[in-house]
Amino acid sequence: MKTLSLVTRAALPLLTASALAEPLTIYTYESFNTEWGPGPQIEAGFEAQCGCDIEFVGLEDGVALLNRLRLEGNNSQADVILGLDDALIAETRELGVLADHNLDLSGLDLPYNWNDDAFVPYDYGHFAFVYDQTKVTDVPTSLRELVFESDVSIIYQDPRVSTPGQGLMLWMKSVFGDDAADAWAALQQKVVTVTPGWSEAYSLFQEGESDMVLSYTTSPAYHISAENTDRYQAAIFDEGHYAQIEVAAALASSDQLDVARDFLAYLISKPAQDVLPGTNWMWPVLDSADAPASFELMAKPKTLWFDSAEIAEHRRDWLREWRNAASQ
After folding, report:
1. If 225 and its partner were Cys, which of 7, 19, 292, 299 is the partner (CB 3.0–4.6 Å)?
2. What is the pTM of this model?
3. What are phi and psi of 107, to 5 degrees?
């Protein structure tokens, strides 16, 4: 044992500092780090650049990320959070746990102007109802037509725990305003089920449980690229579509803040941006990023959005409005 101890001590100076360092811990949503998600390729790319180690910790959804930060505060084990969306940034900022990114984001391609010292946007999309065109022929052309006139059945996600579900809540509010309660009541008549997350909803839709499912305008790109079929399409609505921008940020409590900031910079570099469209199936924020050819067929609709401070101020009331209709 003594001999082994001496050998080990002798070898220590030969190890690199990165090999001895703790991994960079990144809280994200589960699908980001699946074998088909962007996590593995981005992990390999950044680790090769920094000579460090990344550890992804998967949580259910962006809302779960916010709730974990609320619980952990400045004692969080995370160095970086990745996968919140723009609707949640004001509530997250109020926790006082974020560090400035120190990056110039002025050249990014986003659906609306971005100016934030802590959050780095890395991809974006527009919510849409996706349908199977071999089964649905009378496709609504507006959210108003879907809600009040169409007879299609739908599945969507719970806005209390799912960022897509929250996106539908904001979409409804942006289109119907003070009449949103009546719109929710009408929409409720078409609902097959409300699921906790996107994956459950999309799986049920593909099993034929509904005519349409809440997803993204870019979802059909996956089916074209991976399955060589255009049977799944996104209904494009006249009023416009609510936008979702996915963001990442470093935590001020991190003892690897420089590495965390380097990771944020890597997220918006071309190597990482080239990965995101074909794995996360969202638009990259870098104009020069490579995307599957199927993205050329995807619509970029009119953008609807609220400032996150306005969402933080009204979120409870808007959730109550939805819950009252959903419980009927």
Report:
1. 292
2. 0.91
3. -95, 5
d(CA 92, CA 162): 16
pLDDT digits (tens, 9 = 90+) for 212-240: 999 999 999 999 999 999 999 999 999 99
Strand 232-235 and strand 120-132: the pairing is antiparallel
Rounded to 5 degrees, φ, ψ at 271 are: -60, -40
Give the pLDDT confidence score for residue 328 in this predicted structure.
72
- Name residues whose C-beta falls within 8 Å of residue 60's C-beta, 6 or more positions apart in sequence: 29, 30, 161, 196, 197
Residue type for position 113: N
* Nearest Cα residue to 110 out of 300, 318, 272: 300
- Output phi, psi for 123, to 5 deg: -160, 170
| pLDDT one-digit tens code per residue, 102-132 | 999 999 999 999 999 999 999 999 999 999 9
